[in-house]
Specification:
Number of domains: 2
CATH topology of the largest domain: Methylamine Dehydrogenase, Chain H
Distance between the termini: 13 Å
CATH superfamily of the largest domain: YVTN repeat-like/Quinoprotein amine dehydrogenase
Strand order of the largest sheet: 1-28-27-26
Oligomer: single chain
Strand content: over 45%
Helix content: under 10%
Largest sheet: 4 strands, antiparallel
CATH architecture of the largest domain: 7 Propeller
C-alpha cells in the first residue's frame, strides 16, 4: 500500500511539472506590477501597469520593449482596436491613446478624477471606460475616438470594474457596491441602447464584487470575481436575467485568491485566473483543470487570442506565455488544420476519459495511445470519419497507472496530448 501511495505521489508531482511547463515566464524590462494584457493577433501585444508602465511586443512576447506613456499614474487596462489604435486607462481618471501601435501615447481628457478600471472599444470610434472609488462609480463613452468622453452614469451606489459590448448597442458592466466589503452585493448592469439607459441585473443574494465580464452574444456570458463560498464564476444563457453559479474548486476562497480575470475564447474554452492558479475548461465549465504557476506571486490578468496563444501578467514585472503543450511522439509537425484534438476529461482518468476531436473534412484517422517511451499501447480509432466533432471513450482499467499520450494521426501528421491514468 505504501509503495502504491508513493507511486501515485511521484506520478502527481511529474504531471504537475509537465502541466506547469505549459506556462513559460518571459523576460520583461521592468519590476513594476503589471495589471492588464491585450493582443491584437498572435504576435502584437501590449501590457500596462504601475507608474505608467507600457510594454509592447511584436514577436509574441519573446521581446518586450518599454514605451514612453507620458504619465506616471497606475494604468489598469489596455485595449487596441487594431494594430495601430489603442487606449489605456488608470488612476485619477487617466486615459491615454496611441495611434502608432503603442510606440507613443497622448493624454485624453476624461472629465473625471475617479479610478478607471477597464476600457473597451467596439470599433475605431465608439468605446467605453468604467471605474470608481469607494461607493462612487462612473461609466464613460466616446463616439469620436476619445476626443470627447461623456459621462453615461455618475453613480453613488457602487463602483464598476469591467465592461463588455457585443455591438454598438448591447453591453454589460460589472462591479460592486463597495470595493472593500467582500460580503457586499455585486453589481451587474445591462444596456441595449449603447449606454444611454441601464437595466439593473444585480442579484443581491450573491455577495462579493465582480471584476471581469465577457459575452459571446446577446444570451451567453460569464462574469468573475470574489465570493466567500468559492462560487466566484457566474454564467448566463439569457443575457443576464438569471445566473448560474459555477464551482471550480472546493472550500472557501480567500480575498487574495479571488477569480480576478477570465478569458473566453468560445462557449467551450474558458480560462480563469486566481492569485497563482489558472483554471481551464474545454466543455463550458463542466470540468476544470488547474495549473498552478509555481513562480507566480500575484496574477492580475490573462488574455487568450485563441486556444493556442495566451498570456498572463502579474506583480514584479512578470509575464507568462501559454504553450498549448501539443507534443508529437514521432514528429514535430502539427496537424495542418485538418483536425483539432481537445483535452480529454476527466484528466487524471480513473479509469475512464472522454476524448473529443474535430475533423475539417471526411478523413481516415488513427487515434492511438502511447506510453512515455513512445511505444504504441492501444489503437482507439482506426477508420474513416465524417467531418465534424467526434468522441471516443478511453478505458484504462486494464492498463497500469502512469502518463500516456493520445495522438491523432492524419495525412502523416501528428497531434498529441497528455493523459494521466491513476487507479
Amino acid at each position: 500500500m505504501r509503495t502504491k501511495k508513493l507511486f501515485i505521489c511521484l506520478l502527481l508531482l511529474s504531471i504537475v511539472k509537465i502541466i506547469a511547463q505549459e506556462w513559460k515566464l518571459q523576460y520583461t524590462p521592468t519590476a513594476e506590477a503589471l495589471f492588464d494584457v491585450f493582443f491584437i493577433d498572435k504576435m502584437k501585444g501590449w501590457v500596462v501597469g504601475n507608474n505608467g508602465i507600457v510594454l509592447r511586443t511584436t514577436d509574441s512576447g519573446k521581446t518586450w520593449l518599454q514605451q514612453e506613456s507620458g504619465t506616471m499614474v497606475n494604468l489598469r487596462s489596455v485595449f487596441f482596436v487594431d494594430s495601430l489604435n489603442g487606449y489605456s486607462v488608470g488612476s485619477g481618471g487617466r486615459i491615454i491613446k496611441s495611434t502608432d501601435g503603442g510606440k507613443t501615447w497622448a493624454i485624453q481628457s476624461s472629465g473625471t478624477n475617479l479610478y478607471l478600471s477597464n476600457v473597451f472599444f467596439i470599433n475605431t470610434k465608439i468605446g467605453w471606460a468604467v471605474g470608481g472609488e469607494l461607493f462612487n462609480g462612473t461609466i464613460l463613452k466616446t463616439t469620436d475616438s476619445g476626443l470627447i468622453w461623456k459621462k453615461m452614469i455618475d453613480s453613488t451606489a457602487g463602483s464598476f470594474r469591467a465592461v463588455h459590448f457585443i455591438n454598438e448597442k448591447v453591453g454589460w458592466v460589472v462591479g460592486a457596491r463597495s470595493l472593500f466589503d467582500n460580503f457586499e452585493p455585486h453589481r451587474i448592469l445591462h444596456t441595449t441602447d449603447g449606454g444611454i439607459t441601464w437595466q439593473n441585473l444585480s442579484d443581491f443574494t450573491r455577495p462579493g464584487p465582480l471584476v471581469d465580464v465577457h459575452f459571446l452574444n446577446q444570451k451567453s456570458g460569464w462574469v468573475s470575481g470574489f465570493s466567500p463560498n468559492a462560487r466566484g464564476i457566474l454564467y448566463t444563457n439569457n443575457g443576464g436575467l438569471t445566473w448560474t453559479d459555477i464551482r471550480i474548486q472546493r472550500g472557501e476562497l480567500s480575498w487574495s485568491d479571488y477569480y480576478r480575470s477570465l478569458a473566453v475564447v468560445d462557449s467551450n474554452n474558458i480560462w480563469v485566473a486566481t492569485n497563482d492558479t489558472i483554471y481551464r475548461t474545454i466543455n463550458g465549465g463542466i470540468f476544470w483543470n488547474a495549473t498552478r504557476i509555481q513562480s507566480a506571486k500575484g496574477l492580475c490578468s490573462i488574455y487568450f487570442f485563441d486556444n493556442h496563444n495566451g498570456w498572463a501578467v502579474g506583480v514584479e514585472g512578470s509575464i507568462w506565455k501559454y504553450d498549448d503543450n501539443i507534443v508529437s511522439i514521432h514528429s514535430e509537425k502539427r496537424v495542418k488544420n485538418k483536425s483539432i484534438l481537445e483535452d480529454c476529461y476527466p484528466n487524471p482518468a480513473n479509469p475512464i476519459a472522454h476524448i473529443k476531436y474535430y475533423l475539417e473534412k471526411e478523413s481516415y484517422i488513427n487515434l492511438i495511445l502511447y506510453n512515455l517511451l513512445g511505444q504504441e499501447v492501444v489503437t482507439l480509432v482506426k477508420e474513416y470519419k465524417l467531418p465534424g466533432y467526434h468522441e471516443t471513450i478511453f478505458d484504462g482499467s486494464k492498463l497500469p497507472s502512469g502518463v500516456y499520450f493520445y495522438s491523432i494521426i492524419l495525412d502523416s501528421n501528428f497531434e498529441s496530448k497528455k493523459l494521466l491514468l491513476i487507479k
